[in-house]
Every structure is written in C-alpha cells, then in structure tokens.
Amino acid sequence: MVAETTGAVAPHRWLRFEFAALYIGAPLVIALFLPGDALFTALAVFSLAGMGLLWLTGGFRWRILVRGWRRMPWREVAGIALATALASWVILTLTRPEALFVIIRNRPEFLLVIWAFYPILSALPQELIFRPLFFHRYGAILPQGRAALALNAAVFSFAHLMFWSWIVVIMTFIGGWFFARAYLRHGFPAAFVLHAVAGNILFAMGMGLYFYTGNVVRPF
User: Fold this and answer.
1) What's the pLDDT at 174?
2) With 80 as the cut, is the pLDDT of residue 117 above it?
3) 3-state secondary structure string across 119-180
4) Which of 21, 25, 77, 183 is the most buried if burial means most Cβ atoms within 10 Å?
5) Cα 181 to Cα 96: distance, rounded to the nearest angstrom
6) What are the TM regions of this chain, as residue ranges (predicted)?
7) pTM for the complete prediction?
C-alpha cells in the first residue's frame, strides 16, 4: 500500500509548510480559540480551501469522488457499525451511563435530523480534506505504506483536539486509520460511507456527549 502519486505540485519545502499549516496549525488554532458554534463554518472554509488546493495540484481526477459505489466493502461497513456501537456502549457504561441512548429515549425525531445531515455537513467535508487532499496533494512528501496510514490517522485525530477528550482522540485515530485504508483500497465513496455510518452510530448511542461541540469545556 502506497500513497497516491501527484501531478504538478509545489516544491517539497512549500508542501511541508502548507501541510503543517493545514493539518497542525489550523486544528490547534481551532482548539485554542474558535467558539464551538463556529465549527461548521470552519469546516466549510476548509472544504472550499481543500477543493481549491486539489485543483491547483493538477492531475487529480474529480470523478474518483463518485466512483467506487459498486466496490463498496459492505462487510467493513457492517463491521465498523458494530465496532462503533460496542465501543460506545462500553465507554458510556463505564463513564456516563445516563447518556446511553439519550437521544433515542428523549428526542428520537432529532436523531433522524442528525442522520440526514451529519453525512453531508460533517463526514463529507472531513473526508475531502483528510483523504483525497492528503494523499493526492501531499503524496510526494508522505512516508510509504502503513506509515502514511498512521500519519493520516494521527492528523485526523489531532483535528479533533477541539473536543479536549482522550476518548475522542483514541476513537478518531482508530476511525481515521480505517477510513484512510478504505479510501486507498476501495475509493472515496467507501471512506465516506464508513465515516458517515460510524458518526451516525456514535450519536445514536449517546456519544454526542463527547463529540458535540456544544459540550466542549476547554481545560484552561
């Protein structure tokens, strides 16, 4: 497994600076200073910036974003749904049992709203930034094989620093690994579906306690 090759790209020194600014600097600024209610605005800005950077890179075939539905790894989709549900149940049982299935018990209609909009407003822009942009534009400066997957999972996890939770850090690292692997093996639709399913299961189980920006409390 290797990172994608790139088309005409900027010099490596500039790419490293850009990479650090996008995947380290921006999440750090968000975690330290950005109000929680500005998350989706930030995601929209990053998505547009990511699309622009992909266009500037050259050699990226936009149709890959919609190709691959026939190669959907349904066993992996089922597996990540089951694993997410089980992990959420264990975590909430041990830490905040009162939050288990809280939306289903109190506002089931709101869960349908989350399931409808989370994939498009959250999972999709995140996948654009952390999969095609990461592997295409920065492929020339990435390590090879599993090291690239580990780096991708690490920056994806770091992007969730704003939640200030070790639970979120661990879960997003593991999730990022599987999303990246699905992208490289099966294409963008697979990564998007895995991310969307995992996120929807998290909120159904009650993990919005940890993954909802409105609940964030900075430790300073």
Assistant:
1) 98
2) yes
3) HHHHHHHHHHHHCHHHHHHCHHHCCCCHHHHHHHHHHHHHCCHHHCCHHHHHHHHHHHHHHH
4) 183
5) 31
6) 14-34, 40-62, 74-92, 112-130, 151-180, 192-212
7) 0.91
CB–CB of 15/140 below 8 Å? yes
pLDDT tens digits, residue range 81-90? 999 999 999 9
Residue 184 and residue 127 in contact, taking contact as beta carbons nearer than 8 Å: no
pLDDT > 90? residue 24: yes
Contact between 67 and 191 under an 8 Å Cβ cutoff? The reply is: no
- For residue 150 the two structure tokens come to 């580990």
The beta strands (E) that lie in the chain are given as none
Least confident of 14-18, 34-38, 64-68, 83-87: 34-38
Rounded Cα gap, residues 195 and 209, in angstroms: 18
The conformation of residue 4, written as its DSSP 8-state character, comes to P
